[in-house]
Amino acid sequence: MSNVAIITGAGRRVGRILAEGLLAEGWQVVTHVRNAEDEVPVGAIRVAADLAQGKAAAEAVLAACPAPPTLLVNNAARFAADSFADFSPEELGAHMAVNVAAPALLTAGFAAAGGEGDRLVVNILDAKLAAPNPDFLSYTLSKAALAALTTLSAQALGADGIRVNAIAPALMLLSEGQSAANFEATHRFNPLNRGVEPADVLRALRFLVDSPTLTGETLTLDGGQRFWRLPRDVQFLEPNSR
């Protein structure tokens, strides 16, 4: 029987590409989506659940596994714009529920599911954590908390043979509210002048799967953009404004 992977937020964008990549390599892939009508890649096991619903949603995702999973990718995320000027505890709470509490619950359930051999949790962070700015305030706070969860769960679960790592990509795909022209201008805005692609995340995931002694680490995929210490989110900057 092939290995079983769980990928949250796998109906679209980078989550779907990760699911397609693992399916092509012979994994059984449980693809979480939020809405009942969301599609998943052909051959994947589909489970719809709103991760904001907490423990019940996590249990539904884990129950869809045909065998104890050996890989969990916490990819699903809430991404909504806010700032100090319009900050609200409600918006922060909504981000924390999906971006932190759900990964924590899924990681705990993944650990409890048992299984043999190398087991791996990968949390999808954001490269901006390496050089933070206050744009998308609640989102950024929640990703910082997920980074802390990566370290803490790696410490807590190592004795059980479970590794926990993270991948932190920079801008890969057009964001909601971003123009195509702005994306084109900012996608490669880094020292290497190379835009980060979803395929880069898939390659990083493969590396983590194939590195059985690596735990508690974050792979930052940003073309070196963090070295520029940008004062704002890249989509709000002109390419010559560093």
Explain what you see.
- It is a single chain.
- It is globular, with a radius of gyration of 17 Å.
- Strands 3-2-1-4-5-6-7 form a seven-stranded parallel beta sheet, with helices on both faces.
- The longest helix has 24 residues, at 89-112.
- The chain is α/β, with parallel strands linked by helices and 242 residues long.
- It has a single domain (4-236), classed as NAD(P)-binding Rossmann-like Domain (Rossmann fold, 3-Layer(aba) Sandwich), CATH 3.40.50.
- Helix 1 packs across helix 6 and helix 2 (55-63) packs parallel to helix 3.
- The chain has helices at residues 13-24, 55-63, 89-112, 137-157, 180-186, 198-209; strands at residues 4-7, 28-33, 45-48, 71-74, 119-124, 162-169, 218-221.
- The protein has six helices and seven strands.
Helices and strands in order, then pairings?
Blueprint: E1 4-7, H1 13-24, E2 28-33, E3 45-48, H2 55-63, E4 71-74, H3 89-112, E5 119-124, H4 137-157, E6 162-169, H5 180-186, H6 198-209, E7 218-221
Parallel strand pairs: 1-2, 1-4, 2-3, 4-5, 5-6, 6-7
Helix pairs in contact: 1-6, 2-3, 3-4
